[in-house]
Every structure is written in structure tokens, then in C-alpha cells.
Amino acid sequence: MAPPGADMVAVDDLVKHYEAGFIRALNGVSFQVAAGEAIALMGPSGCGKTTLLNLIAALDRPTSGEIRIDGKPLDGHRPFDRFRSTYIGFVFQLHHLIPVLTLIENVEVAAYPTGLDRRRRREKAAALLVGLGLADRMQALPSRLSGGERQRGAVARALINDPRIILADEPTGNVDSETGARILELLTARSADQGTTVIIATHSQEVARAANRTVYLRDGLVEKIA
Amino acid sequence: MIALRGLYRNKLRTTLTIGAVTAGVATLVTALSVSAGVKRQVADTMRRARVDVTVQSRGAIDAWSSRLAVADYERLRGLDGVRGASAVVLERLRTPWNSYFLITGISAVEPLSSRIGLVEGRFFEPGKRELILGDLAARRLGYGVGNKILLAADEVFSITGIYSLGVGLLDSAAVLDLGDAQRLTNRRGFVNLAFLQVAADRDAADLIAAINRSFPGLIASPSGRLLDQTRVAEVIDFFVRVLVGASVVTCGLIVANSLLMAISERTREIGLLLAVGWTRPMVVRLVLGEAVVMCAVAGIAGSLLAWLLLLIFARSRAGGVGWIPGFVPVDIAVEGMGLALGLGVLSGLYPAILASRVLPADALRFE
Q1: What is the model's pLDDT at position B226?
Q2: Residue B367: what pLDDT?
Q3: pLDDT tens, B81-90?
Q4: Who wins on pLDDT, B246 or A158?
Q5: Could you report the predicted ipTM of this complex, rounded to two decimals?
Q6: With a cut of 50, which residues of chain A have pLDDT below it?
Q7: B211 domain residue, yes or no
Q8: Hey, how many other C-beta atoms are within 10 angstroms of the C-beta on A41?
């Protein structure tokens, strides 16, 4: 694992075009994020924030450019499913909880690929949900949860494998301010206490203020880093 | 766990899919059970009657259409190595009360007559229009010893005894004198079959070979394979195979279609699983798991349904189907289950592979 201060994520001249170049999501983005650093990605809708997170998580392939994770090119981390289960915790903009599974089962789902035994998996999921104030909602189906509870469940799912990098796409966008503050606190605490690298795509100034740095994107390019 | 819960997602679709596969498995198990049951009953009958070799006319569609000249039968009886012989006339009569009532004509002086166990009354006497009735037929018809039975116009027979062979097919029938049976079925000078007993010091295979060499118009076979020598058995076997094939293909398409719909509706979920690190084989196993669970349930339900259908048929008085075995042989139930599971794997494979090839980012964007 990268020592504190070394680059955990390095993005170099990253380009992503869709539809044979008709949609240009990223046009040469470069920045670095140190291990244990929390950064915010800001910019108007459609500026490429989600695309950037997807590329870092190896959910999509860049048109050109390079991503280095923990000092190695992303391709060096193949197979990507293993990379995603060990390196990445992704909090999606929409919670994407599986409707037929209870909240705790939804959290456990992310731990299946790690081979963790059932008891340990359940313990970890329960501890995370308790920490997020969902102790009495563990057995509820997503349809019985409020928007905030679902999003906190999605955060717990992202954290269950103790990822080295947390990618959060508008994690506070669809929740009330109290829940948003709680989620933000949890993510930044992971960064500060466990050295987890956190990259949060957001429109929120509060989130940006809580981050160590903010990368501003516009039209698929880095406008400024502050 | 996820595979099981996935089936709950759309209960109606899951139920309909399981129902369709259940119907397919039930059809298959019923057809195979009937076919195997008939063959077993015939083999049992031959064993009980201590018949070693059966002879019928070559190319006969079934035992009923076999025509063996009495002159040939006499020659067979006189062959070296034949210890005993019985001529048999078989026919399904259209009676006012049963359109497929089986009658068997035998000679009261030939060995076969001594193998028929009477549970009541006495054996028929030749030339007196007497018959003995199987116990199943007697129960269904409500007849007993002393009653009279109308077999055809002006053909009224007295029931002199009730027999039981423990073989549904024959216990649902009547046995009467060979001459009466020939008259009733317009087979004067002919019988359907010859049942031969081989002498203790002779080999049945040698006798069969000798008959097949010397009687080009006849075919001899080991008694247990009587049905296999008839064209109707070939037709039934072929029909069963076609039925099995059609059922398998239809059920496979239904399961595959159901799964394709399911994975299409759950594209984002599959994308999510891949995004959190599930491997493609894990996704394949998930989808296959759903297919196998559905088909396993259908396999069990299909065998139970087949058993129920056979029970109903076996107890039915309609259409002369009362001789159908009222159970599913274990090997056929296992075969049905194996087929259902194989079907689950085969039909689930394509949807499973399709699901595993989803690109996570595209799947998560899927509306």
C-alpha cells in the first residue's frame, strides 16, 4: 500500500469519448490524489465527474490517457473484479440497493467476492450499519427505508471490504442535511483515521470544505485545483 | 440466497415458468411410466406364465394384429426342444360398456390355462360360452360369478370364475375359450401368438434361432421382449422420444425466455454486483442458480403431477385405461428430475453468460 503522502490515484491526460467521439466526457484530465487524502470533484452536471469515478474504478475504459493506482497502471491491477473488491468502495449517486434483499444482506453482497465467511461478513455489515445509525433497520427491505437510510446502507456496502479508495458520487445529493453531514463525517473520518483515499463527486460546498482539496472540472477538463 | 430471492421478485412469472416446466416434466414422466409399465406388465405376465419364447407374425403392428396360422402353430408345437405350447387370441372388443375391452382366448387344455389363478368360481368349459373375468374388470363392472356378460351381438357369456394375475392389463380383461375367441374376432384358422416353453435341456436362444430360420413369416423372441418386436412398440418409443424432445426444447425455451426477461429487468443490479467486485463466474452461478432452482422445483412437481395423473388413469373406468400403472417407477422419476436439472443448466447458460458480459458502467446507467 502507498505510504501516506504518496500518490494513491494518479490520472494523466485522461480522455473519454462516447458515441464515436460525439460525446466528449473527458478531454485530458490530469491530477493526483495522495494516500489518505480526501478530495472533492466539483463542476456542473455533465462535466465528467461520474465518468472519471467510473474510469478510476475500472468500470469503464478510457479512450486514452493513463490511470495509476497505488503506483501501478490500472491494467496492472487485473483482474478488475478483484481490484474492485479490494481497492474500491463505490458509493453510487443512486443507492442501487437490491430490492429483494434486506439492508444487511445488501451490505454483505459486496463482501461475497472476498471469501469472508458468513458469520464474519454479517458481523462486519452489522457493525457498519450500527455505526451509521441503522441498527434497527437491518432486516428491512429497501422499499421500507427512507432515502437517507438507503444511502447510508449504500455507504456501508462501500465500506465493508475496507477499501483503500472510496469513490462517492454525490453521496449527499439525495439526503437531508443531517444524513448528509453524517455520511460526510464518516467518509472523511475514514480518510483521516485509516488513511483511505476518498474522492467525492459533489455539487455541495460543505462537502468541498470538508475535503483536503477540490478539483474543479468543466467541459471535461480540470479548470482548477484548490 | 440471492438466486432464491430473485425468484420471489416476479412471483407470477416464476410460477408460470415453473408451471410450464412442471407440465413438460409431467408429460414426460407420465409417457415413460406408461410405456415402462406396459412393458413391465407384459414381462411379468410372461414370467408368471413361465413362457420362454413368444412367436408372432413378422412385421405385426402389435400383438392384436399378429396373424399366426393354426397350421404353423401346430408345427411350432411339434418342434424339437419345445416342452409346452399355448396358442393365444387377443382382441380389444368394442362392447356397449367399454370400447377397449380386452379378451384373451386360450385353450383350456394347454399349459397357459393352468397358470391363471382363480380367486373365485371355476375355469370355463369349451363350447359353453363361458368365460372367466379379471378381478379388476369384475370390480369395475360390478359383475361376479353367475352373471352374464354381453360381448357382441348374440354373444352372451356366463362368468364362471374370477381370476387375478396381479397384472393390471390382464386383470382388466376376460379370458375365454380359444374357439369362442376365434369366432368373436373372425380369426378362424388363426391365432395371434404362440407361447412356448423350452425343454429343460435346451437353450431358448437356439430355439428362437431355429424358428426364425424355418418360419420366414414369423418372428420368435424371448418372452420378455414381446412388445419390443411389435411395430406399435417402436411407434410408441419413437413417439415418447419425440414427446421428450419437444418437451425439453419447449421447456428450455420457456426457462431461457423467463431468465432473459429477468436479467434484462435487473441489468443495473448485475452491473452493481460487478461494480462491487463480483466475478463473471459468480454472476453466471447466480443466474444458473435461479434456473436450476426453478427446474428442480418443476422436476419434483412434475413427477408428483405425473403420479397423480397415473393414479387417476389407473382408477378411471373410462376409455379402458384402468390397466395403466398407478405409480411412477423410481428410475423414471430420477430420470425426470435429472432431465429437469439438466434443462435448468442448459437453458440458464445463455442468459447467465449474457448477464456476466454486461459492462458495469453501461449496466449502472441502464434505464
Answers
A1: 66
A2: 63
A3: 899 899 999 8
A4: A158
A5: 0.91
A6: none
A7: yes
A8: 27
Asked whether residue B54 is domain-assigned, the answer is no
Residue B52 lies in a domain: no
Q: Specify the pLDDT at position B319.
A: 47
CATH architecture of A36-48+78-225: 3-Layer(aba) Sandwich (3.40)
Show residues of chain B in contact with A157, CB under 8 Å: 276
CA distances from B239 to B20, B123, B231, B233, B313 (A): 20, 40, 12, 10, 20
* Residue B132 in domain: yes
Tell me if A92 and B9 make a contact (CB, 8 A cut-off). Answer: no
Residues B193 and B320 in one domain: no
Whether residue B261 is predicted with pLDDT greater than 80 in this model: the reply is: yes
Domain closes at, from B163, B190, B216: B216
Give the whole-angstrom CA distance, residue B86 versus residue B51: 9
Domain final position from B183, B216, B249 = B216
Assess whether B36 and B65 both reside in one domain: no
Of B8, B276, B280, Cβ closest to residue A157: B276
Cα B262 to its chain centre, rounded Å, is 37
- Each residue of B29-80: pLDDT tens digit? 888 888 887 777 777 777 777 888 989 998 877 778 889 999 999 999 999 8
The answer to whether residue B157 scores a pLDDT higher than 90 is yes
Question: Within this chain, do residues B154 and B275 fall inside the same structural domain, yes or no?
Answer: no
Chain A residues with beta carbon closer than 8 angstroms to that of B358: none
**Residue pair B198/B186 in contact by the 8 Å Cβ criterion:** no
pLDDT at B223: 78
Task: Quote the cell numbers at residue A133.
Answer: 445509525
Residues from chain A contacting residue B360 (CB–CB below 8 Å): 59-60
Report the residue from A85, A96, A105 with minimal CB separation from B277. A85
What range does the domain containing B307 cover? 2-41+233-365
Contact A38, A211 (CB under 8 A): yes
The pLDDT of residue B64: 81
Window 134-193 of A, Cβ < 8 Å to B: 157, 161
Nearest CA in chain A to B282: A113
Joined grid coordinates for residue A65: 490517457
Helix (H) or strand (E) segment spanning residue A35: none
The residues near B295 (Cβ < 8 Å, ≥ 6 apart) are: B21, B251, B255, B340, B341, B343, B344, B347
Q: Which helix (H) or strand (E) holds B124?
A: none
Q: Are residues B98 and B209 in the same domain?
A: yes
C-alpha cell at A113: 467476492
Co-location of B137 and B270 in the same domain: no
